[in-house]
Design brief:
By secondary structure, the protein is mainly α. It contains eight helices and no strands. Helix 4 packs antiparallel against helix 6. The chain is flat and about 170 Å long.
Length: 237
């Protein structure tokens, strides 16, 4: 077919169609839709909501060398050692117990002396006094009085034995240590006491047996008295 010349009608239609095509083309070129935005919108639509979880992390307990607990055996050993140390008898406690023992002996002597006196009088009143009095060539009242006082004297002499037994029972945990300290104490007394043969009216012997010592300071004073006695003896000689 041969190419026909365009008519006026065809030209008018082409003029009308051309601006729309150009405008759409221009719009598409000037403001293109980004592909990344479309993908993100579609992806966000597809994502499922995730619930938030509260997660807490516990701090691990770290033991240092200073916080390690001691085993029970060590604590028991330390407790036993403390008790043994607290029950150790020192010299001051020894002198206090020695003084207490003297009071025990004195009180027991008084009690046993009175009981012996009463017991002797009761025995004499219940027995045949004529036979007893007839054997002693003295006044009967004096004889009975002497027998009664003799019973009281026996009770007085038995008092220290009873008092010492009561004291040892009361302080039985220190009995062995008391015996050891007693031996050491008298050994020191025997070593440092003065010679009594050099005594005189102007220079008497200062506490030969150490009975007045009641403390460590008293023992030091006793040593000073012994040295003073020796100085006086050399001066007078």
């Amino acid at each position: 077919m041969l190419y026909a010349a365009p008519t006026l009608r065809t030209a008018a239609i082409s003029c009308r169609v051309q601006p729309t095509v150009l405008s759409s083309t221009a719009f598409s070129t000037t403001a293109p839709t980004p592909l990344r935005a479309q993908d993100s919108s579609s992806t966000s639509a597809r994502r499922a909501p995730i619930s938030k979880r509260h997660v807490s992390f516990k701090k691990p307990n770290i033991r240092h060398a200073s916080t390690i607990s001691t085993p029970p055996s060590t604590s028991a050993t330390s407790t036993t050692g403390t008790q043994t140390q607290s029950e150790h008898l020192n010299w001051n406690t020894f002198f206090k117990l020695r003084k207490t023992r003297r009071w025990y002996q004195l009180g027991s002597s008084i009690g046993t002396g009175i009981n012996g006196f009463i017991l002797g009088a009761e025995v004499l009143t219940r027995s045949d006094m004529d036979k007893i009095v007839g054997q002693i060539p003295m006044d009967p009242f004096i004889t009975l009085g002497m027998i009664t006082f003799a019973c009281g004297g026996v009770g007085w002499l038995a008092g220290p034995i009873v008092g010492t037994a009561a004291f040892n029972w009361r302080n039985r945990k220190f009995r062995k240590q008391m015996d050891e300290k007693e031996k050491e104490f008298y050994k020191r007394i025997k070593k440092y006491r003065v010679d009594p043969s050099a005594s005189s009216m102007a220079n008497p012997v200062p506490d030969y047996y150490g009975e007045k010592i009641s403390s460590v300071s008293g023992y030091r004073q006793w040593l000073k008295d012994q040295r003073a006695f020796n100085r006086k003896r050399q001066t007078y000689v």
